[in-house]
Design brief:
Elements (H helix, E strand, L loop, with lengths): L4 H17 L9 E5 L5 E5 L4 E3 L4 E7 L3 H8 L2 E8 L4 E12 L3 H9 L2 H4 L30 H4 L6 E15 L6 E7 L5 E5 L3
Antiparallel strand pairs: 1-2, 1-5, 3-4, 4-7, 5-6, 6-7, 7-8, 8-9
Length: 199
Amino acid sequence: MTDSLANILRSCWNELGRGAVDRRHGFHVPVIASLGLDGAPQARAVVLRRVIAEAGEIHCHTDLRSGKVAEISANPRVAWHFYDEGRKLQLRIAAMAEVVADGPRADDAWTRSAVTSRRCYLAPRAPGEPCDAPSPNLPEAVRDRRPTEEETQPGRANFALVVTRATAIDWLYLASEGHQRARFALDINGAWQGGWIEP
């Protein structure tokens, strides 16, 4: 492992970027946590959809009817947890989140999504809504097959992009010979500053 903080920060963003495009990467399905409306933390696994390192942005998608939308609207602070077992690398990232449902950014995110991913936005009921029995919450017509692009279009009304902007990164490398840990935070000028901390 390197002893250069600059290299570590660069590697963090490189690995996050790889996680967004490689479904086998350990960072592809991270956990994002928000503050519930009742004040309790709420954590859930999401698919990492896009990373824009130069803007410090980490994106995922959500159903506009999901609980996280109301939570982020009430308090935009979120926390990400990424762990790659193969690389023995953990990232904990503090960020500010915004739900983007309309406009070019949301339209672009929808366009980039595979039809198999879009299918879940056709759900007739809101995520988390009570039901009488186990349910895929999908229309009968597309339960057992890949929908066409045209069939997914009604799902656009339920789709939103979650844009998060990182404010701090806690990097932890796990090694039998001794762990290493560093913390990075944005300064008042928007530049990343880093330092070593005890693992």
